Amino acid sequence: MYTLLFLTTVFLTYYAMAIVQTVLHKLFGHRNRIGRIFRNHALGHHAKYRKDELLTDRYIDSETYVMFYYLVPAAAIGALVFALGGLAVLAGYAVGVAFAFWLHLYLHKHYHLRRTWLDRYRWFRHKRALHFEHHLNVRSNYAIVEFWIDRLLGTRQEPGTGSRPGTRIPGENRQANRSPLAAERGA
To answer: What is the pLDDT of residue 160?
Structure first.
């Protein structure tokens, strides 16, 4: 019973944190509503990974994360989870939050690396292309991992649809750059 409750909590928490990340990115990442978040993300991350320099040989160590700002709503939700569900549910919640943070940071780092072991996977190349579309059009694709959330928000934009015609990911060949959907359609 406790194992199922724990695993269900981990699963639901991961997706809840993915939704929180996407919505907060949309609300605060590119609008100067909370100055420090805006400066760290829009003027920090997007300034370091400009449209013409999305890929690097080494991830920029001075990258300023805004993920720690997500701890505020995560802690508030955690207090509610503990009050309603007790220690077993709180433990599952903590594991779900930790996994969500780790996965978002890990994949995001690899999106910007020119050479990554993940590049062999079609799903990764498509997620990277969706993320790079965000760098080309900051009013789209706010998610880092779960881009279906952008579809729900009406902010999903497939790779190549919002950028200048002919724009492609720098340092990559056109074939490796195409999304799986475009490749299947023969685009």
So the answer is: 80
**Angstrom distance (rounded) from CA 129 to CA 171:** 13
The pair of structure tokens assigned to 44 is 């920090």
What CA–CA distance (Å, rounded) separates 177 from 102? 25
What is the token pair recorded at 125?
């190349």
The pLDDT of residue 35 is above 90: no
Query: Which residues sit opposite 56 in a β-bridge?
Result: 113
Residue with the bigger pLDDT between 165 and 158: it is 158
The span from the CA of 45 to the CA of 69, in Å, is 15
Nearest CA to 136 out of 108, 153, 160, 152 is that of 160
Handedness of CA 12, 17, 19, 20 (dihedral sign): positive
Q: How far is CA 165 from CA 22, 108, 111, 160, in A?
A: 27, 25, 22, 7
**Dihedral (CA of 9, 153, 157, 30) sign:** negative
- Contact (CB, 8 A) for 167 and 136: yes
**Tokens 């195409």 identify what position?**
178
